[in-house]
Design a protein that fits this description.
The chain is mainly α. It has one domain. The chain has eleven helices and two strands. The chain has helices at 2-14, 29-33, 41-61, 66-83, 88-96, 99-127, 129-152, 169-173, 197-212, 216-235, 241-262; strands spanning 16-18, 280-282. A two-stranded antiparallel ribbon has the order 1-2. α6 crosses α7 (129-152) and α7 crosses α11. The radius of gyration is 26 Å and the shape is globular. The two termini are 20 Å apart. Residues 1-29 are annotated as: Disordered. Its main location: membrane. Keywords: Membrane, Transmembrane, Transmembrane helix. The chain crosses the membrane at residues 41-58, 107-125, 137-153, 191-213, 220-238, 244-262.
């Protein structure tokens, strides 16, 4: 009986007791917000849905300043000629001559922009919950600064330029395609080409896949995706090269915001969120 009593006392001494240094102390609200945690599915679905609705609403509410947008397009085109990179028209005509290829690009432009981005978000949610919130912040900050660009710098896409021979590939081939062409064009702002979020989002997807995927061929696909997207946006006459540069700069801003907020880039954070501190500690077993 005596031995049982001693064992009971020793076990009791090893149980969690309040740490005098942390008892009654909770992390500040700001610190809790900046600590990666496991995402909640219902909240993420609601957040993504509301965010995309808000993005579309604001983007399409930006005044369609046609005159200024066309003048800006002329200026961009002149700058690209000066830089020796104004080859979008030749690419547009060349790819448009291969019907199956350009039709495939029309569908690519209309669908993968959303499908792949959502797919990468789901993958992060399931496989990298500790990095999910920071990576999502990059995407959201990128999109937010793009909205500022749409408002401050209206820009007509190449297919709407005055005096050009660019081909609107969706109109010519009668494919179900971009919201900015055909019967759907009245539902979308025609003069929000700068920056290109097709590039901003696809590059975010590509970097995420390349950095975090373990299978080599999947990592290669991650690099190919934004490269293919760049070719598609030019071939379909929806963007200039410099629109893509604008998308890259917006993504750089998004990464900077996440780096400042979390103190690290999203991909360097732990794969799993850290366990919440309990404010308790274990007493050592007495000899």
């Amino acid at each position: 009986m005596g031995e049982s009593t001693v064992t009971s006392l020793e076990d009791r001494e090893q149980t969690a007791v309040p740490d005098p240094g942390t008892a009654g102390r909770r992390p500040g609200f700001l610190r809790r917000l900046r600590t990666p945690r496991r995402p909640r599915l219902w909240f993420e679905i609601l957040l993504i849905g509301v965010s995309y609705w808000t993005y579309s609403l604001i983007r399409n509410a930006v005044p369609e300043q046609r005159g200024e947008a066309l003048r800006n397009a002329d200026w961009i085109w002149k700058v690209e000629h000066h830089l020796g990179i104004a080859v979008e028209e030749s690419i547009n005509h060349g790819v448009n001559s291969v019907t199956w290829l350009i039709v495939g690009m029309n569908y690519y432009y209309a669908t993968l922009h959303f499908v792949v981005t959502l797919g990468v978000l789901v993958w992060l949610y399931r496989s990298h919950p500790g990095r999910y919130a920071a990576a999502r912040m990059v995407l959201f900050a990128t999109t937010l600064v793009a909205l500022v660009g749409y408002y401050l710098y209206p820009l007509a896409p190449p297919r709407l330029m005055n005096g050009s021979t660019f081909v609107d590939t969706v109109m010519v081939h009668q494919t179900w395609g971009s919201m900015a062409s055909g019967d759907l064009k009245h539902m979308s702002n025609q003069y929000a080409a700068m920056p290109s979020m097709h590039i901003g989002w696809s590059l975010w997807c590509g970097l995420t896949i390349f950095t975090l995927a373990k299978v080599p061929w999947v990592r290669v696909l991650g690099l190919l995706y934004p490269t293919a997207t760049l070719l598609v946006i030019v071939s379909t006459a929806n963007h200039f090269w410099l629109d893509a540069v604008g998308g890259m700069l917006c993504l750089a801003f998004g990464f900077a915001v996440a780096r400042i907020w979390y103190g690290a880039l999203p991909y360097t954070l732990p794969q799993l969120p850290p366990a919440r501190a309990t404010g308790k500690r274990l007493l050592p077993r007495k000899a």
